[in-house]
Amino acid sequence: MEVVCPIDAQFAEQIAVLLEPPSSLQLQEYFDELITSKQCNGIQVKPTNDYGKGVYADMEFEEEDLILKDQMLFGVQHSSNKIDCLVCSFCFRFIGSIELQIGRKLYLQGLGSPKDCFDLASEDQLENFHCLLLSIALGDVKKLTTVANLVHMLIGTYAILYFVLEKGQKSLSKKALSRFIEHANETNDIFLLAAKAISSTILKYRKLKAAHNKEKEKNHIAEVLGNHNFSLLLKAWKPLSMGYKRRWWDCIALPDDVDACDEAAFRMQIRQLAFESLELLKDAIIDEECLPLFSLEIYGHIIGMFELNNLDLVVASPVEDYFLYIDDLPEPEKKEVDEITQPFLDALGEDYSVCCQGTAFFALQSCMNHSCCPTAKAFKRDEDRDGQATILASRPIKKGEEITISYIDEELPFEERQALLADYGFRCKCLKCIQEQP
């Protein structure tokens, strides 16, 4: 039986407007402004004939030159990775001392795998954390430094979503939010990315509305009935409107163990899974003024956008540097230090240093098209210690040339590459593919 989301029917017109692809002019203006604000000198986002938009060099680059460092719009650490890595839920940089990183990992290894670090946080911590998040939302960053340890000791998913809860709903919504997170951890953590996107849009809407009401009062403007609230929601939604989208259950790749004759049933199951996740999210953070965001159509397109455009999130752990530093110490200093550190290294085992791993969506990097002979690559240098996307030139790039990356292992045979790229909804026609096709 097909699932039905009442919000889809109730707000069909508004949902269609939210999902309408931006015009070429809107895309150009948005990305020009974004590049200027991020001071990403040397690149342009322009329309392309085949793929909607692409990133082009606005200057010459030599091989290994840094082309772009792009701060993510939304990112999430894999739940299985949270035991090994204590990171900031905003920038994904490792936080705290080396002793804290090692001690926390050993402690959690002794406990086993907790369902979620939310379970480890006390009620008082969550109350303080809620106040902190509200202050950050209002721009009061001073409190961020005074309680940074509390912020970072709590897991990011709960943190990002918790601030959108109404104060009078907290006791009920925290339980609902916990159920949503548990469902995502058990099924697909891409739901957490979608929840962050919706939460962020709600927060932007609220800030825009507050500013609008303040300006109205300042100028003694009488309230006029109209669609100004939806206009503000559209403005808050703008960063998400710029990404290429398809519904998740339409674009997700068919698993190898699913027969082609069962494809329709499989895609219906995926739609049902998204609906279950959305219902749990609505129980936790629904906002009556932003109801179109909680439609299954919107939810499916947000997840589909991440499925088609996300980038692996990897940040190297400082724990490895710590033990490498000890290993390079001169004798007899090394022997003296080894007597203290070796028991910890033995207790940690072979996986003594694990990278922070997750998935993220980047506004500018996601505009880069694929090529099996790419001009650039996503590659972290030794100095890149946070969750930003780092794009380096793979070879010299001329001004005006398109900057492309590979979505897959470009060393695979032609047919395997094309099969993998079919998951993204296109057939590659780069020079390498043209030369290798049968």
TrEMBL record:
A Pfam family assignment: SET
GO molecular function annotations of the record: methyltransferase activity
Domain SET: 41-408
The organism's place on the tree of life at top rank: Eukaryota
SUPFAM superfamilies: SET domain
PROSITE patterns noted in UniProt: SET
Protein name: SET domain-containing protein
Native source species: Lactuca virosa
